């Protein structure tokens, strides 16, 4: 009897997980395997073993490895987008908005599960379905930031989107760089440094309707 079969046999009768709970369990196991091994090296056998289920159970929920990866990617892209939206809505003070948004990216990459690697450092970026999702969440995060910039500055949508893409890209790249430097600078300090840099740029655009008196 294999280790997986022993695990299944040892599970008390009547403890079968509801479908949603089982799906979440499988996604959690898949995340651990994908983050540790990368997509190409990971095997469905590894994921099933990590989850403590048989392969048929895994295939009941996900027809193949790519389906499983994409489901996980969707989950974590949505988490990033919601974090950015929450940060932007957390205050009406624009400097604090910048700080909250920068911090959202730092918190995202710092998560112990390493989910950001699936979004920003995947070894499957040549797969169209993966590239589409990563591009989509990058664009949607920029759009959320763009909405605030356009409303507050009166700049055109196109101009606001350029600035928003710059801010989002800055936050993402610097947060990842900070993490890979073994967090040599405390997170609060790193966020404050990045906020100061970003704010000095974006604050140069006056608030809409606040023309200076001559």
UniProtKB/TrEMBL annotation:
Keywords linked to the UniProt accession: DNA-binding
InterPro entries named in the record: Homeodomain-like_sf, HTH-type_TetR-like_transc_reg, HTH_TetR, Tet_transcr_reg_TetR-rel_C_sf, TetR_C_32
Signal sequence segment: none
Record's keyword annotation contains Transmembrane: no
Keyword presence, Oxidoreductase: no
Gene3D superfamilies the record matches: Tetracycline Repressor, domain 2
DNA-binding region as annotated in the record: 43-62
Chain ranges of the HTH tetR-type domain: 20-80
A Pfam family: TetR_C_32
Protein name in the entry: TetR/AcrR family transcriptional regulator
Protein source organism: Streptomyces macrolidinus
């Amino acid at each position: 009897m294999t280790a997986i079969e022993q695990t299944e046999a040892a599970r008390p009768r009547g403890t079968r997980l509801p479908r949603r709970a089982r799906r979440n369990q499988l996604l959690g196991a898949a995340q651990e395997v994908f983050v540790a091994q990368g997509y190409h090296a990971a095997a469905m056998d590894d994921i099933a073993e990590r989850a403590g289920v048989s392969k048929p159970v895994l295939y009941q929920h996900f027809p193949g490895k790519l389906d499983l990866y994409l489901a996980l990617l969707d989950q974590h892209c949505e988490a990033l987008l919601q974090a950015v939206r929450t940060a932007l809505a957390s205050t009406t003070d624009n400097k604090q908005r910048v700080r909250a948004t920068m911090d959202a990216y730092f918190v995202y990459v710092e998560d112990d599960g390493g989910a950001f690697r699936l979004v920003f450092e995947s070894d499957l970026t040549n797969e169209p379905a993966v590239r589409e999702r990563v591009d989509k969440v990058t664009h949607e995060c920029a759009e959320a930031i763009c909405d605030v910039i356009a409303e507050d500055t009166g700049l055109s949508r196109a101009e606001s989107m350029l600035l928003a893409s710059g801010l989002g890209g800055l936050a993402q790249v610097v947060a990842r760089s900070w993490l890979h430097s073994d967090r040599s600078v405390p997170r609060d300090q790193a966020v404050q440094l990045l906020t100061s840099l970003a704010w000095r740029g974006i604050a140069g655009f006056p608030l809409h309707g606040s023309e200076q008196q001559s």
